[in-house]
Amino acid sequence: MKKTNRFTLLLLCISMLVVVLFMGIKSIWSTKEAKTFDAKQEEVHKQEKPAEKKPHKEETSDSKENAVPAITPISMDDALFIGDSRTVGLMEYSQIPEADYFCSVGMSVFNIHDEAVSVPNVGKLTLTELLNNKTYKKIYIMLGINEMGYKFENILAKYEELIDFVKEKEAAADIILLGNLHVTQSRSRSDEVFNNAAINRLNQALSKLAKKKKIAYFDANVLFDDENGALAQDKSSDDTHLYAKYYEEWGKWIKEQTALLLKEE
Asked: Which of 34, 184, 233, 253 is positioned for an S-S bond with 239, CB 3.0–4.6 A?
């Protein structure tokens, strides 16, 4: 064999040996990389796995003690509502028939002592006669709509006189001022006297007066207002008074708020 052929054969053998060694090393490296990737993936899955939910603990005596107690229903057979047409609505539809109602459509702080009113199951009499003959533990007063158009300071002065009069007659009673309900946005925009800006001004003054006299103040507008702070259009047929079914909701709310008030006292 010629030297050239031998030399070529030798180079070919060396090349094949290098290729075999390279493929072996690559196989070992790939296996090592695969194991490393699998280990990393397993670690990721461990981190992503949600924690096992612990079994629900039974209610302990401590949790029961911290639970919010249910509102205890209160009796309204010792209650008196004084007011205008909104109070007439409460009398007719609130489902609080056990209470007494001294109210009329046109009643205001300016004429409240002037007229005799037919009080269901009691008779026709003035406010003075009613308070002289019956004792109440809860007295709700809601007036102000019929007074709009009068001088604001005079309204508040007469309101304060009424509160003092009721306090004198029923010293042991809880007196609660009820904020005046808003009118709908359509009426508020079109009426220069009976509008929500005027109602808000009066209600704010009544809230301050209640604090001054150390009596309660409830504002039910949170129940019936729309997003604009006006009486929701779908809750009123005349832009001023509630549909009958909402008086029942209002009456229930008044009883709940009163129960909370008496609990705090």
From this structure: 184
Output the DSSP codes for 48-98: HSPPPPPPPPPPPHHHHHHSPPPPPP---TTEEEEESHHHHHHHHHSS-TT
Report d(CA 264, CA 253) in Å as an integer.
17
- Angle formed by the axes of helices 244-264 and 85-93, nearest 10°: 90
Sorting pLDDT into bands at 50, 70 and 90, what band is 99? very high
pLDDT band for position 129 (cuts 50, 70, 90): very high
**Do 215 and 175 meet the contact criterion of CB atoms below 8 Å apart?**
yes
In sequence order, what are the residues at sequence separation of 6 or more whose Cβ sits closer than 8 angstroms to the Cβ of residue 57? none
243: left (phi over 0), alpha (psi -120 to 50) or beta: beta
Can you give the pLDDT at residue 109? 98
The total of other beta-carbon atoms located within 10 Å of residue 127's CB is 22
Label residue 40 by pLDDT band (50, 70, 90): very low
Q: Does residue 199 contact residue 183 with C-beta atoms inside 8 Å?
A: yes
The answer to whether residue 42 scores a pLDDT higher than 70 is no
Q: Which of 210, 239, 214 is nearest to 224 (CA)?
A: 239
- Are 72 and 259 within 8 A, CB to CB? yes
pTM of the model: 0.74
Nearest to 162 by CA among 61, 83, 73: 83
C-alpha dist (Å) from residue 92 to 104, 132, 245: 12, 25, 11
With vertex at residue 252, the alpha carbon angle to CA 250 and CA 253, rounded to the nearest 5 degrees, is 65
For residue 218, the cross-strand partners are 178
Summarised one tens digit per residue, pLDDT across range 54-98 is 444 444 444 445 554 566 779 999 999 999 999 999 999 999 999
